[in-house]
Write a structure and sequence with these properties.
The protein is mainly β. The chain has two helices and eight strands. The strands form two sheets. The chain has a six-stranded antiparallel beta barrel with strand order 1-2-7-6-3-8. A two-stranded antiparallel ribbon has the order 4-5. The chain is globular and about 45 Å long.
Length: about 150
């Protein structure tokens, strides 16, 4: 391992939430298995210091939401899915319990009201910290040849 890699591996990273997600789910067990399975609307409340970062956000019909899965204990390395599926490492899964519990969802942007975004398609508990928002860019984000072995 090079010196640069050793420095990077031992460094800590500090992230500050830019807002919070309001879903109405008070417990992890209430959350849908994936964001695509939740057509209900919820709110992304962006903190006042970051409100200007929402300029022209409505130019995008969909957004990527990166968020911190604050109920995860961050210890799992192997995941055993429900049913007959084979065990996999968390890097080969969408499990919320992972070393750096960062969630990622593609959501539909319904409307903006000041610093609050109404979206459809979140799968996390109420009060989940938002790390970042990015526009979903179809020509860049769509991968027509993408496959995953556990889905036909």
């Amino acid at each position: 391992m090079s010196n640069q890699q050793e420095i990077s591996m031992s460094s800590s990273i500090s992230l500050n939430p830019v807002g919070f997600i309001r879903t109405g789910f008070s417990e992890v067990r209430q959350c849908p298995k994936s964001s695509r399975r939740n057509p209900d609307q919820c709110q992304l409340e962006i903190s006042s210091p970051y409100a200007d970062a929402l300029l022209n956000i409505t130019m995008a019909s969909h957004l990527w939401v990166l968020y911190w899965l604050h109920h995860s204990d961050g210890t799992a390395l192997i995941r055993r899915p429900r049913g007959d599926e084979a065990a996999r490492g968390v890097f080969a899964s969408r499990s919320p319990n992972r070393p750096n519990p960062i969630g990622l969802s593609a959501v539909e942007l319904i409307r903006r009201d000041g610093n609050v975004l109404m979206v459809s398609g979140m799968d996390c508990v109420d009060g989940t910290p938002i790390l970042d928002l990015k526009p979903y860019v179809p020509i860049e984000d769509h991968q027509p040849t993408a496959q995953i072995a556990w889905q036909p």
